[in-house]
Prior knowledge:
35% of the residues lie in helices and 21% in strands. The chain is built from six helices and eight strands; from the N terminus they run E-E-H-E-E-H-H-E-H-E-H-E-E-H. The two termini are 28 Å apart. Residues 1-53 have low confidence and may be disordered. The strands form two sheets. It has a five-stranded parallel β-sheet with strand order 5-4-6-7-8, with helices on both faces. A three-stranded antiparallel β-sheet has the order 2-1-3, with no helix packed on it. The protein is α/β, with parallel strands linked by helices.
Amino acid sequence: MALPSFSYLFTQLGTAYKEPLEENAPGALSSLVSSAFANRAGQQNSFRIFCADSEMTKTLYVLNGPNLNMLGLREPGIYGATTLKDIEMMCQEKAASMGWSIAFRQSNHEGELIDWIHEAREKSSGIIFNPAAFTHTSVALQDAIRAVSLPVIEVHLSNIHARESFRHHSYVSPAALGVICGLNAKGYVLAIEALVEHLEKAQA
């Protein structure tokens, strides 16, 4: 079956590759993917294919892990007085100012977070993720992020590297586009700005 003429776009952690696909080129797309992976042999980063001529889904998922529903009450000396609802409003305002929307969610359950990451593959273009304590324990969350091949920015309210040693390691970071930590609620806003700019640059 003949393939339509369109431009494909590979994104790999901020690097874009664009070429036209020729009409009437059976197997061109599969060959293209094989070639791209061969050229990146030994690297673990995933690829995702977009139709450059199609409209990007201008929605981001903002996912929050365990105990973040207690923000404002939980250890305010570390996490501040800002509530999760306050952070949601800040994220909504920032996304709207850039012409985007967000789906903002929180769960204390690892499996539910994994389900939302899977869902994001069909309903969003990227994820802002504060895994909270699951950061340091969950191989499953890393696997889920790699499986969906969406760009993810990891966010932490506190500087995890200035706290207990067990918090220094993140299972999410190796699969993330970037990490923002220690800037409190402002980190979410900066993550939205960075992720939108990354996605729009890749789409251009």
